[in-house]
Amino acid sequence: MTQLPHAGKRLHEKVRTPRTRRRVPPGMSPGTLLSHPEAPRPVIQVLAFGPEDTAEQIVEEPWQVQDFLDHWPVVWIRVVGLGDSEVIRAFGKLFTLHRLALEDVLDLHQRPKVEEYPHYLFMVAEIPQIGERFESNQLSLFLGPGFVLSFEEQEETCLQPVCDRIRAKRGRVRDAGADYLAYALLDAVVDSYFPLLEGYGERLERLENEVINRPRAAEVTEIHEVKRNLLRMRRVMWPQRDALSGLLRDSTPLVSAETRVHLRDCYDHVVQILDLLETHRELGADLMDMYLSSVSYHSNEIMRVLTVITVIFIPLTFIVGVYGMNFNAQTSPWNMPELEWYWGYPVVVLLMAAMAVGQILFFRRRGWLGAPRELDKTEGNETGGAKK
Known about the structure:
Elements: E1 43-49, E2 54-59, H1 66-71, E3 74-80, H2 85-95, H3 99-106, E4 113-116, E5 121-129, E6 135-144, E7 147-152, H4 160-168, H5 178-191, H6 193-213, H7 217-249, H8 257-322, H9 344-366, H10 377-387
Parallel strand pairs: 3-7
Antiparallel strand pairs: 1-2, 1-3, 4-5, 5-6, 6-7
Helix pairs in contact: 2-3, 5-8, 6-7, 6-8, 7-8, 8-9
C-alpha cells in the first residue's frame, strides 16, 4: 500500500455542529451557498484504491484531488465539516456539480433522497446519533464515474468500518467500482439504526415491567420521549426507503447490475427498520393504555380495601356509639341495664370481634376480598352429571 503524507491522521476532533432549519435566508437566489459561521472548517481526506493497492492523504485544497482522479480507478473524497462555502464551491467547479445540489449540502435537514443529474447521482442520507434524544447528521454523496464525493457535518464513526475494509482488502469493495463504494456507505448508515432500535426496545421492555409492577408518573414522561424519538426516526426512514426504491427502479449507467443486487439488500434492511419502528410505536401506545389501566386497577384495589374496612367498622362504631350514651341505669330500669352486668364488657368485645370476622368471611366468600371465588365444584359435578 502506498502511504502518502499525512495518511492515517485523525480528521478533526468531534465537535457538535450547530444546526438550523434553513441556512439561506428567504428571498435569496436559488443555489446560494452560505455556511454556518460556527460550523467546523472542512478537512479533506482522499482515499484512492484499486484491486492491488490503496493510497490516502489529507489535502489542503480541492484541486489537489485531481492527481488521484487521474491515476486511481476509484477515489473517495471525504469532506468533514461544512464551515467554508468556498471549499464546497471549489468542489462544484472541479466536478461540475449543480448549484442546487451544492446548496442542499449546506442546507441541512434535507429529506433522504436520490437525484439524478447527467453525469452523476446526488444522494442524501441521515446518520443517527446515539443518545437519549434521537438526532441525526446529514450525509451528502455525489456518485460519478470513478469517484464518490461525500460531505459530513462531523466525522462519523459508522463510516470507519468502510475505510478499514478498503485498507485491509476485506470484502469486494477493492475489486468493485465507485457505485459499490456508495452502496457500502449507504449500507453502513442504514445498519447504524439497528443498535439504536435495540436500545429503544430495551427501554420499552423495562418500562413495561415498571408500568405493570409499579406505575408512576415518571414512566409517562419517558414513554412520551421514546414515542417522539421513534416518530423522528420514522420521518427519516420513510423517505430513505423511497430514495432506495427509486434508485432500484430507475436505470442508470452509474450503478451496475451487481450493485443493484446489494442495494436490494440495503432496501430490505430499511424495510426491517420500518417494521421494528411500527412495532415499537404500537408498543409505546399500548404502554400508555396499560399505564392508565394499571393506575385504575391499583386505585380500585385501594378503594376496595378502604371500603371493606369502612363497612367492617360501621356496625362496630354503631355498637360503641350506643354504649357511649350517658343514660343512668339507676334512674330507670330501661336505661341500659347491661352496664351493670358482670360480663358486659367482654361480651360486647367478643360480639364486635365475631361481627368483624363474620363480615370478612362473607366478603371473601363473595369474592370481594382477595382472589375471585372459583366456581363451586358441586355445580361442576352437577353440570357434568346432567350432561351424562
